Request: fold
Amino acid sequence: MSPLAELSGRRTGAGYVQYMRVAACAVAVMSVAACGGGGDGGGSSITTPPPVAVGSVAVTLPAAQVQVGAQLTAQAEVRSAAGAALSGRVVAWSSSNGAVATVTDGGVITGVAPGTVSITATSEGRSGSASLTVVPVPVASIVVSAPTPSVVVGQTLALSVSVRAADGSVLTGRPVEYSSSSTAVATVSNTGVVTGIAPGAVTITVRSGAVEGSIAITVLPVPVASITLSAPATTLETRRTLAVSATLRAADGAVLTGRSVDWESSNTAVATVSPAGVVTGVARGTVTITARSGSVSGSLLLTVTPPPVASVTVTSPITTIVVGGTTQLQATLRAADGTLLEGREVQWVSGTASVATVNNGGLVTAIAPGTVTISATSEGRTGALVLTVQPPAPASVVVTPGSLSLLVGGSAALSASVRDAGGNTLPGERVTWTTSNPAVVTAQQNGTITATGTGVATISATAGGRTGSAVITVQNAPVASVSLNFSGINLLVGDVRLLVATARDAAGNVLTGRPVAWNTSNSTVVNGQVFGDTAIITGVSTGSATVTATVEGRSASVLVVVAPAGPVSVCTLIAGALLFGDDGQYLGRFTNRFDSQSVLNEFGTYGSRFSSTSTNNEFGTYGSNFSSLSAWNPFASRPPLIVRNGQFVAYYTVNTARTPRVSPAVALSCNFP
Reply:
């Protein structure tokens, strides 16, 4: 077959172009041969031997793999059947998968996509191939980005990942893996979507092979939109606690937990609140409790009330006090849990105000000995304490006045103040009064003193072993006047009268114990016996005389007229007079014989011979010859007394030694009207 015929038979196939080129050259060679001639102009021809047929084609690659986008040149080694290398042969190149790699006419291979491909070289019907692996371009870096560096819990954030080659070109279609440094804070999906789980910081890492890139994401809590406070009650007692709960919600109403909350009280004088929201009542009033989280707050109004009184205990530093003393009681008020309560109103009451009183402040004052129950009541609760009141021991006695001057016969009232050690007066103490000299001053038990004589005496008041005293000076009161008990006297010779001189001061008070000077102007008519302020005068002879009594320069006189004596004179003297025994026994009167009380009525009580009170009973006390009280005993030392107008007149006796006297025999002979 001629070269042209062979060429015409290869119009199709991979090496069509190469074959065309070879045929053209053959034609050219043949033309030269046909047209050429010798140098000598001869006509001889040159014969070209036929080409050696290709026996095999071997393809060699500089590397077994090539990166996508990179190139390498393949070499085709054409040999004859004998193994001799053939040069100048046309070689056609082809790729088994142009999507993985392409090859040019010159054997330049370009990686298109990862994969394995066969590169084939064909020459004159003989082919050879080599396997080539196209590998992707190595990842040099991964750049991870996000629209924002933070995400709110519960929300998502899509990451952007750029995989790049060493030259900075973006590599697409590379598989990447995502991971979170803390899935408790945030998770990441296979597509790079980050979901916030809990507040915190997290690193999201993107890996491609051994290369990785990362981004730091901050997970923010869901913003607090509202805070609602709640409590078991809105009323709180002082010193009690109440737990207030704060509920934080997001804008969608979801409850937010784990958030920091700051607590505050609008008035810590009414209530305080702890960092945990525990409110403690301090004092009565209203208070607003506020919880804050960031700029959002919520409030709750509470009312603080005092706890009710559950018990009242009354105490005292002492339980026994003396009259006049005091003790301050203390009322301790407690709530049901034993908490001490202060500032509450307390009412104090004494069960026996006559023993002790109590004021509004609990101060007890002892009044009299005894026991008393003191009660304290607050809000319907009562406590009580029993106190014993004892009489105080006297520490001193003060006599008022401490000194006094009196005139004889004068009197005064002294007072004694019995006092305890604190100087308090002790009422009701028994006081005993005594005098150091009763001849000067006497003392009664009511403190009244009477001056009895001139001089100085000490009056003492004693109580409970303690004594106080007063010094009393007594002087004689000057005599202002003197009076006698008769303004005029008529006597018979032998008759007697009892004259009494009474001295008085300017106030008319009787002055006793003053010496009296008696004088008669004519002792031959009247004389007598003197007994201090008393004088018994006797008519001596007929006539008249003036009897004068003088006391400290003051005088009183009486004119005495003496008539001749006779029996009738004695009867006149004693007519109507009363008769008394020296022992004070009433013995009748000198009246007519028919008077039941007459000493002359022999049938009467005082004249009968059988009556015990008759001076005519010779066996009786007042009529016997032997009784010292008898009118008929000549030696009687205490004979009966005749008294007229309260004044002694004479003795009723036969004893001649007793003067002045009236003989019973003479009296019984009288005929009284």
